[in-house]
Design brief:
Layout: E1 7-11, H1 16-27, E2 31-36, H2 40-50, E3 54-59, H3 65-79, E4 84-87, H4 102-130, E5 133-138, H5 142-145, H6 151-171, E6 176-183, H7 189-192, H8 196-205, H9 214-225, E7 236-239
Parallel strand pairs: 1-2, 1-4, 2-3, 4-5, 5-6, 6-7
Amino acid sequence: MRLKDKIAIVTGGSRGIGQAVAELFAKEGARVIIMDLLPQGQEVADGINENGGKAEYHKVSVTDKTAVETLFEQINQNYGKIDILINNAGITRDRTLEKMSEDEWDAVIRVNLKGVFLCTQAAVPYMKANKYGRIVSAASNVGLRGNFGQTNYAATKAGVIAMAKTWTVEFGKHGITANAVAPGFTMTDMVKEIPEQHFEAIKASIPLQTVAQPIDIAYGYLYLASDEARFVSGICLTIDGGTSR
């Protein structure tokens, strides 16, 4: 098992990529703490436990500084450490720049960028205390190349990559690595809402002529969270079928 006895927090672990990460990490021996506002997180945790894994669900928003700090302190008290933080929670509020409202801008910045900041800030002291940590944050290939109607989303994902590079410099001496994963189109609930004609055009634009499944992205997270990647820090691992070549 690649994550045996590790304590792993997965934000946004109730569905999609986050759910795939939570389930895969549990199979690899980690105790998984799912942190999400969606009640499906309890179902994911129950499923993991029923299949012999170890998981728990906490209804906490990544944007609530006090709640995040309280939860992380509780986790550290219960298990004596926090080994892995997967900053996966994210939202979209797509609209072209000229039509985008300030509320739509602020909502995406608050969850996708500030949420990553708050969770990492809360986790790092416990990682430093144990001289070990793996921080992996959800970027997107949109953060590398931009995308029509996603000024807010692209800005947050580029910011996540920059934060990982900064944290590499700040925390490397404490045995902590920080990386990002940039998925391309993945069969999540958000992608399923795309009209079929547009979806087929997207698929045709990908060199591998298909879209990712959540597990394809989860394996990238697994590598960066494992000891196999002990000398990998400050990178953005792009998993998009060659779109960002």
